[in-house]
Amino acid sequence: MSKEMTIHLKYWKQNGPNAKGYFEEYTLDSVNEHMSFLEMLDVLNEELMLAGKEPVEFDYDCREGICGSCNLVINGQAHGPKERVAACQLHMRNYSDGDHITIEPPRAAAFPVIKDLVVDRNAFDRIIEAGGYVSVKTGSAPEANAIPIEKEDADTAFDYATCIGCGACVAACPNASASLFTGAKIAHLNKLPQGEVERKNRVVAMVDQMKEEGFGDCSNYAECEAVCPVGISISAIAEMRRDYMKAVMSGD
Amino acid sequence: MPSLIKALNSQVGRKIMTGITGIGLMLFLIGHLAGNFSIFGEAEAFNKYTHTLESLGPLLYLIEAGLAFFFLYHAILGISIWRQRKKARPEGYDTYRTKGGPSHQTLASKSMIYTGIIILVFLVLHIWHFKFGPSYTTMVDGTEMRDLRRLVIEEFTNPLVAFGYIGVLALAILHLAHGAWSAFTSLGMKHGETSKKVQFGAYIFAIVLMLGFIFIPLYIFLTGGEGSLIAY
Ligand code: HEM
Ligand code: FES
Question: Where, by residue number, does the polypeptide cross the bilayer (chain B) (predicted)?
């Protein structure tokens, strides 16, 4: 037998980037405890549509915690209350009958609201475009083991590469800083020999772009690490700072 | 590569400089406390100490200018970082709460700007009180020098001054409890076992250092300036 619950929702409605937003409330009477958070929102939208009302827009794609599309701020916490879980993988069994849940979009000037809970995260793409790539010779694929990489470096690079770019770090940061995202994207390339050639330009260009986009500074609150659905550590930010200092010190 | 100016203005550069100036100011505070403790013990040791400082002449001006620069640079960065957060998030959350775990969001980290500004205001009053306060003189070993000990005792027997100082110094514990950890993180310390030890060390450092400073006005006030630790 699965439990059914009553959940009181309060969610953000906003018609466009410049429209004035507001909260709307709705009570769902039969939320199944095995539903994911997004399935609960599907049920909400179904009820809204059947009642002739406009559904609430929210972002998602994979619904299995790997694409980084979902990015809801749930009761003031990015991706909700569970550690290392994306909103799409959060289940309603984490809530109890009669709970009140407030759902907001990530709030940052660099992430303008497109509609309701959907925000434009192109700022992240522009940070990647600034330097989050490696240049390789075209042609047939190189032999996979041609470049030996220390196990430890490969592991750290992989840890940073698990960033799914959801933007929870920005959402949760009291300063709306993009340092964890940018740090992870820099570090996963700078840790590898393939990233070596462009490492200095990469760190400088990406750090500049993050400021250009209007994100805040990092005050070392480490809240980003706490909300990251894949558990990326603020050591990524330390790596970024070290690489930046090295790039500036080395002159060229 | 970016010019130095551009690098210092980058979001990484700003934090590195907040950290460096912060560490510089903490080192200054250690020296300042060590010097202040000469008010206890041997008579006239305090006046001799301040007199030695004052007779450094141009070197003292250089040190003072350096200190003022560190203070101002640190304060400007701190205020600027705080202003940027309003720009970066013009519309705040209705509900916001920390997720805990590895987060360093604490009363101390959240109040850096407030404790910082209080320290800044305090600093102006502090310099005005002591550096530019009444200039009593005394003779020590045949040399006429400023009797700062008398001024210090006079000030701290006034409850308003004594408890004003104690209050500000207590708030400074918060600033340093987060600051002494954060500065190293700004300079590239990673999150891990070392970082945890540094955070623990920062709490101890902040408490011990500030209790040291607090002891002076507290002792002078409680003993009415006539405690046995202060020799005449
Ligand atoms: C004796 C005086 C002071 C000492 C020893 C001190 C020490 C520190 C240290 C060590 C940090 C950490 C640096 C970092 O995060 O990298 C810090 C941060 C900070 N300080 Fe101070 N500070 C002092 C005075 C001030 C003053 C006068 C202000 C004026 C506004 C101020 C505002 C701040 C702010 C806002 C931060 C946080 C910066 C951020 O959010 O990233 N501090 N301080
Ligand atoms: S929808 Fe893909 S990570 Fe949540």
Answer: 20-39, 59-82, 112-130, 160-181, 202-222
Q: Rounded to an integer, what distance in angstroms lies between the CA atom of residue A227 and that of residue B9? A: 28
Sign of CA dihedral A70, A76, A78, A84: negative
Tens digits of residue pLDDT in A29-57: 999 999 999 999 999 999 999 999 999 99
Whether the Cβ atoms of residue A8 and residue A75 lie closer than 8 Å to each other:
no
Q: Rounded distance, CA B151 to CA B157, Å?
A: 10
B11: closest CA of chain A, how far (Å): 6
The structural domains of chain B, ordered by start, are 2-88+109-223 (1.20.1300.10)
Ligand nearest to the CA of A86: 2
- Structural domains in chain A plus CATH codes: 4-104 (3.10.20.30), 122-250 (1.10.1060.10)
ipTM (interface pTM): 0.94
Smallest Cβ–Cβ distance between B103 and the set A177, A221, A250 belongs to A221
Residue of A37, A60, A84 to mutate, ligand 2, most atoms within 8 A of C-beta: A60
What's the pLDDT band for B180 if we cut at 50, 70, 90?
very high
B45 to chain A, any CB pair closer than 8 A? The answer is no
- Choosing among B16, B23, B79, B89, which should be mutated to test the A contact, i.e. which has the most A CBs within 10 A? B89
End-to-end CA distance of chain A: 67
